[in-house]
Specification:
This protein is mainly α. 85% of the residues lie in helices and 0% in strands.
Length: 110
Amino acid sequence: MENELKLENTIVKSDSLLKEKLWVVIPVVLLLGLAVTLIYNHHAEFSWDGFVQGFDENLLVFFLIGVFAQLVDGALGMGYGATSTSFLLAYGVSPVLSSTAVHVSEMFTT
């Protein structure tokens, strides 16, 4: 009886360790696959100058709005979309781009 309990306990622990590792392995594999696919299909279009030019004032504004909206969402448990959309619209971003930016960021933060 005691040996059976130890055996079942070991099986349960190994299953939980496998499930914990899958939470790390699956996203890493998916991100690496995405990176390899993008590099393979568009390697000629990538350049260091284009990468550096992408870091302009707008990226900083989007980042700060996202951080603030995530703080509101973390404190209240809701409101990321409403907060970030309101601030992006107030900044002068069109409603279509604002909605797209919010929905894409919610895929990774929510």
